[in-house]
Specification:
mainly alpha; Serine Threonine Protein Phosphatase 5, Tetratricopeptide repeat; 72% helix; 0% strand
Length: 639
Amino acid sequence: MSKIADGNYTTVIYTLIKEKQYNDVIEIINNMSDNNRNTRPGLSLLAYCYYYTDDFQNASTIYEQLAALWPQEVDYKLQHAQSLYSAGRYEDALRAANGITASGYENKVRKLTAAIRYGMEDIAGARSLLETNSGLNDDPDTDINYGCLLYKENRYEEALQKFLNAQTMLGYRPHLSYSVALCYYKLKDFTSSLKHIGDIIDRGIREHPELGIGMTTEGIEVRSVGNTLTLHESALVEAFNLKAAIQFEKNDIDSAREAMTDMPPRWEEELDSVTLHNQALCSMDMSPTQGFHKLQFLMQQSTYPQETLQNLLILYCKHGYHDLASDVISTYSPVKDKYLSNYIREFVDAVIAQQTSPDEAYRKLDNMANKLADSLRKATRSVQESREVRDDKRAKSALLDYENTLEKFIPVTMAQAKIYWDLENYAQAETIFYKSVEFCNENDTWRLHVAHVLFMQEKFKEAIAFYEPIILSVSAIVLANLCVSHIMTAQNEEAEELMRKIEKEEERLYYQEPEKKVFHLCIVNLVIGTLYCSKGNYEFGISRVIKSLEPYNKKLGMDTWFYAKRCMLSLIENMAKHIIVMRDSFYNECLVFLNQCEFHGKEIATMPEEEESTGKKELNNVTCEARILKSLILRQLEY
């Protein structure tokens, strides 16, 4: 900043505070001489600005210094306790709050102490303090506080009513609207939750254009808006995180990622722990290494979202890092009982045990499945009984219990089936799935895995019946399996029709997002081509492989090349053994294909950098491998 003339400091500083430029004030005061800085006004303003830039650690340090230098000013002691609470240092905050005994501050201290107890998960203690303080029934703060307690006790319906009552009295408040949206989210009413989130975002766009909402998604480079008071009061960060969580739960990962990038831009070091946690989850399918690094970083902090530990363990198990999952459990053993439910502990323990003792793992999972199945049957009866007596509230609660239990039951069933899937005992895996049909027959995830098991047993007609109803929301490999099922049951027209639909959809996406790479039709053709090559029909199989990589600048990549070259190597092997003899025109097609791969593959690696074993990075690219395959074909033609 430009130099400030003597005598103008007060005017400049208070003008900047009015404009909420707190970081500039902090810089000015810290650059002052000690004599000017360490005055009561200097320290007071510095602490105030630290607090409103969310630097609660420094704020608490300065307020502690102020309270020691001017002990008669009780407000400094209160702000010191408030800063410690905001920094997540609950034990220190409780000691500081208990040390405030001045007359006239009892109500404020009681409210702060209740908030500290709430943060420490001491719900009974927080409730006791609130009940001591609850003199006014019309006080919206009382409704909000009780709403928070009810939320912590998983009584979301009652919490929602408290927040709605407070909203009626206070009108629109961003954080209150967020609390309402959060309750709807917990009640699985995503439509109502998204409506309140939309209100927060729309108001943020209208009232705070300087926060750059949506700019990052649009590809516009913007500077960080920082953790300002305006950003905090707008509740935009919380709203976008909740929107991402809803889309993630609906398995719409692209929309979840978009919600995260729509958030007002901040540098990574400025991100709060919830945002960093959600970024990690949204990046797992594209960059798991980056996602794991973020979750591991959060686990090393003094405070982090309570879901972090459970998500890290589940993702380690999902990606096959069972040893790392065991290490995490050992390292964080003191807090696992606090942050992990019995269900998660038992599930992760069973999945880890699968690596050394599949029988023991299956037994543990079977015990879990039986308990959950009993709970599902009880919930079903409760729903039926409630509907018979027309008790809508009880029926809604029972239905929510059923859905939550089903979300736990399905992963257990999948883990049981995977034990036999890994042993290639697909018939037994099918039996496990059919044992759960009474609960899961309408669940898309369950239907998808049943279809896979049937496909692997070459029960193609049955597989089609499970694949087709979920065709609009599945991955490319599922579409490929469905095409293969049609082909293997002599339904070639259906397979061709499906491929035409995929092609039209890819063309539509290409016009909407020209830079986006879509591999659905590519993978379908690769799978069909591989199938025909495995059956010995190389002419048709290789033609599908060649078609799968067109246009090469969009479809040729590390993974697609891996499967394409396998088919080419199988062809060359059978040529060398004189098992097959092909037309000259077919060999020319293969050579033209390899020439194209050689031309477009200079920058495409054939294996991840960490797996390179040749020591010659320049050889690990598609161009080099295409030349080798071409030389092998030419050598065979010479013979």
